[in-house]
Amino acid sequence: MAALTVHLEQMVRIRQFEEKVQELRAREEIVGSVHLCNGQEAIYVGSCAALDLTRDAVFPTYRGHGWAIACGVPLVQLFGELMGRTVGVNGGRGGSAYFTAPDYGMYGENSIVGAGAPIAAGAALAATFDGSGRVAVAAFGDGAMNQGSVHEAMNFAAVRSLPVIFVVENNSYSELTPIASMVRIERLFKRAAGYGMPGARVDGNDPEAVASAMSQATERARKGAGPVLLEMLTQRLVGHYIGDAQQYRPAGEVEASMAAEPIGRLTRVLAGLGASADVLREVEARVSAEVAAAVAEATAAPLTDPTSVLEHLYA
Amino acid sequence: MPELTTPTEIRTETLSYAESVNAALRRALTDWPEALLFGEDVALPGGVFGVTKGLRRLFGERVFDTPISESAILGGAVGSAMMGARPIVEIMWADFALVAFDQIANQAANVRYVSRGRLSAPLTIRTQQGSAPGACAQHSQSLEALFAQIPGINVCMPVTHQDAYDLTLAAIADDDPTVIIENRTLYHGRKESILTGGPVEPIGGAAIRRPGSDVTLVTWGSMLHQALAAAESAAAEGIDVEVVDLRWIRPFDADTVLGSIERTRRVVIAHEAHTFGGFGSEISAQVAEAGIALRVPLVRVGTPPTRIPAAVQLAGAVVPDASRILDALRRAAHDVAVTVA
User: Fold this and answer.
1) Hey, which of A12, A189, B13, B135 has its CA 20 to 30 A from A92?
2) What is the model's pTM?
3) Would an 8 Å CB–CB cutoff place A141 in contact with chain B?
């Protein structure tokens, strides 16, 4: 039960972070395009629980706030990044779509759909020479399954038995369009067979199921048995980006997703195991204080000095 | 930069241009255990142009063949470089880099900047470009301006055998992503004596290939030898031409280029790429911005905005050669007191 409570807290942390980001975006304390991950938290929390982030490397997409938090990047650095402050994890150079924190195993979000897959394969390639035992995770959405770079990466990884795990966060929408209208197959993981690697579908709203699948995949990869494609089924509770009115979603769909979303679901599981009725409220209160403190600290930090704008382009 | 600045054993070797590149790759793979070499057909076949011949035998699995997948090759280079490897990859023809340009322009170029310097991508992309008899339109483009426009990467174009060796090593040693555009027409031409094993030079720096006082002729890549031939012909007409070989498109050696132009105050820029939007346009702008008072208007020589045809006589009608450069030199030097011998 302790492990489940940790999962719950991490998921609540991600959810509250995203809710706060939405609020700050509305007040224009954060500007620009932001893609939230509400509803998909179990994928990040379950995955990171199965990884060894002192050596493993995660390569998510622009919808990567949840990955960064699950990797353990301090919230103040993430809020600071969104606000262009000195405390920002990349001092405002990366922004929402490019959180990069190698000290935490987070090797960079990516706003080009599917581009992270061959890069993750490259990180895994290095592991086959450097003896680090590293496993790389390429995480992308269902829409990316139709990008050439993803197919190239999967074939390259399979043919060289690279320790990389391809995680498809299948939230059923590729941006604003249902994935079902973009592919002829219902089970995306079946494409793995086309590259000679195993694939599986995972309940992406259950952090334990995610952690279990990821553990098996990482163990396999570390042994040199090669890549795996894991399709994690989930639902996005919010739009593709902040401001997306989601008129393309059928009536009742978001409400149905709410009934299956991972935080409420895990709370019910915990209750069934005899957890206190207040467990969620306690976690929420604790995280809420943490989020408020992080926002306050980030807001108090100076803006990154514009005179530094040309730094870090070349060594 | 990893330790390779110490000379190993300086030797004189007589090598072709392709063998000069090969010698540099061999030394990099020998001295840096983190160096990897991969690409299409580079291992067992030794590359379609034979540049990587013999390296698989010497270095085993560190030299390997990839699927025909430019995104995987370049992305594999970016990801492995981020992890401390020093990948050297071959993109067979520069035109093919466009298939996976994302990995160069959006990925490799961004790593250092967006991570505020905590990550870097020290990768080297070797390719070759340009028109050659019978090469089709998708194997003939000169794309250096396209690469050079991207902040975050380096671009070099070695033309001499010594540069083929030196610039390749400099690129691999550098801690940022570098595109090396080699010269296909020189690969298996005559052999020359070059020095190998010397200290690795830092990236950047143009070379004055022929000193002269009347006109500065700025060139690079495939046009260097045509430019030198044109300069010799011009000399016979009493026009003393200084030929500057850029070597590095990025970083651009403004001091050497503009310094020469300030001395001569007459300039011809000759390259194989299209003049429209070509790198010659950038140099022209820099000359203007530097306020250099030219004696005569700047002259550019390049290919008109067209696709590159396969037929020899058609390609010859658009791709510049020594005679067109000589014409340009005459125009630039029209006010020089010329005494034709």
Assistant:
1) A12
2) 0.96
3) no
